[in-house]
Amino acid sequence: MSRITLEDNAMSAMVKMAEGNPGAVQAMMEIIEKHDSIDPQAFMGGLGAIMILDTWGIYGSSIHVLFKDKCGFDVRKMLMLMRATQLGFFPEERLRELSADQTRQVNLSQEEIDELDAKVCAELSDFKKPDAVVAA
After folding, report:
1. In degrees, to the nearest 5, what angle opens at C-alpha 108 toward C-alphas 106 and 114?
2. Cα–Cα distance measured from residue 91 to residue 53, given in angstroms and rounded to the nearest whole number
3. Most buried of the four, 35, 46, 88, 125, by CB within 10 Å?
4. CA 94 to CA 101: how far, in whole Å?
5. How is the chain split into domains, by residue range?
6. Is the pLDDT of residue 11 over 60?
7. Pairwise CA distance, residues 6 & 93, whole Å
8. Other CB atoms within 10 Å distance of the CB of residue 32
């Protein structure tokens, strides 16, 4: 069951989602801050992306693992994997498995990442290409 309700704002949603994990807060802050410049077509911006994590049951340390270990602190890559999942290019169960893998035994190859990236960018014309993202 989802944790975020209609009464939540971005801050209260992040508190519920983080489960006290500062790495999860960092990931969600990056999503809120950079989402619109990466994926301007997405509904509800960064808050929408956080709500999707809630829908998929990805919370706390799993958010941090996905952001840090699987995406190398690259918010664009994390959003790309989420969009690939939404668009049906990547199984939701596999995303949950990646995010729950604290032993670092479940990974994606660079080839898989590049293939998913190409599919997402082809489907979503405004999604920023990897070389178009400017570091803040």
Report:
1. 175
2. 14
3. 46
4. 10
5. 10-132
6. yes
7. 26
8. 19
